[in-house]
User: What shape does this take?
Amino acid sequence: MMTLVYLLGVLLAMVANLWLLVRLFQVKGAVHGILGILSCGLYTLIWFLMNVSTHNLKKPLLLLLAGFILSIAGGALAAPQLIKLQQEQMEKLQSAPAVQPQ
Assistant: This one.
């Protein structure tokens, strides 16, 4: 269940980041848009946090923030389940008979 929360958070953040990136291309041009792509969205986020009121971008920034929070919370809550699953798989591999090469 928590992995779904994590996945939802990542998808929300990706959609918001793309929305902001498209807006960056429209407002500042190709050079700033390419810089936003090369910085993996960090330049895009910083620029729009500085200019959120001038470009009326509260919705995508709130969506991005919700995506970050959901992905962090979902990842933290899903970690024990994933560790348990990994341990079970390792135990299965260790208890399985070894395959002899022919």
